[in-house]
Amino acid sequence: MTTIRVRQSPPTQSRFYRNSHMYHHLPVRPRIPPYFDQIPMENNAYQLRAGDDTIYILRGRTVSELLPHLLPYLDGSFTLSQLIEKCKEVATEDEILTILECLNNGGLLKDASTEPPSMFSREELSYYGPQILFFSHFTAEPHAYQARLKNSKVAILGLGAIGVTVLMSLAKAGVGYITGVADRQLSPPFPNHNYTATGVRESTDGVLASVLGNINPSIDFRQLNDGLQSKDSILQIVKGQDVIVVAMDEPRMAIFDWVNQICLDENIPWLVCSSLNSIEGTVGPFIVPRETCCYECYRLRLKSNLDAYDEYVAFEKYVREHEGRTASYGYLSQFPAILGEFVALEVVKHLTLLVPPETYGSLFSINFMTLQARSHEVLKLPRCPVCGPAKDQPPKSYWMG
Q1: pLDDT at residue 190, rounded to an integer
Q2: 77, pLDDT greater than 80
Q3: 341: closest CA among 135, 169, 153, 189?
Q4: Other CB atoms within 10 Å distance of the CB of residue 361
Q5: What is 254-277 written as a DSSP string?
Q6: pTM (2 decimals)?
Q7: 294 with 264: CB under 8 angstroms?
């Protein structure tokens, strides 16, 4: 909670100089962001509250006497001169500028005269309104965050229950260019799956494009089938992408290997999540080539910490021999929704630079039944056979003689 005390400034400078300085530094059309509730309190205090995260308390006689008259006009519709004219019956110009300066110094004023980028249509600004409003908590230029999403390219490998959830979420967020890659023709695992929510039931190439067009017509979506059969076919698809998401409903060891090497070679960040074969799901690690662990680092560290090592090695061998044809574990429809939304959230963080994703070089796990969640850091292996800087060097021996 932040307390701002509003006091009339002492006349140490000429009124003309001080007021000219304020006019120069204050917003042209001051606006208190709409995410603030404005709450009068006792003892000459006023509370500006943004949910449960941000609380400002303004105190002082000027606050109790002037703010109730001033706040209704701080909606971005009025210039400084107009605000002074509106409130001249209850306060002097000095008092009005002083309280505006206190609000501005506290980060409580935005400038409504700033026009949004021309790259967004009126419909897009309305559609992304809640998201842009959220971005404005962190920056004076929230449209720049949305622009990063609009200019981004993301490839989603796997269009099953998890992959479609990721796809829908990124489309709603406004990722401008999305490529979805399926192993085979779409076949909803359950009739009430996400992309059939509009009533679409047939399994055709145009289903997802049609549904996405209804959700957000501003994005560019491309669907590819049978594009995951080889490393070369994946390479041709993902070249030039900003992020790759691997979201397979079934374990696909070969695809993980291919994508890991491709992303190292092409310097493309990528994010993986677990398959739907457990009551526990995992998101990550989010792999940034040469900055975080790679997938082989993760896999080798996973194996080294297993109690049932021999059993896992046998299972991994079996999966590689039966790619995409392992037994189905089954799942509740909420499981892929949870995983997919977590994945999409991490991708949005990465693309916008809003905050660093929690899964950079880390694994997030959640038990769907108990809702217990944990985060596990995955360190790089110096001698990782794929990304390690010492992978081509022989082990060193030290002899004491």
Answers
A1: 38
A2: yes
A3: 169
A4: 20
A5: HHHHHHHHHHHHHT--EEEE--SS
A6: 0.84
A7: yes
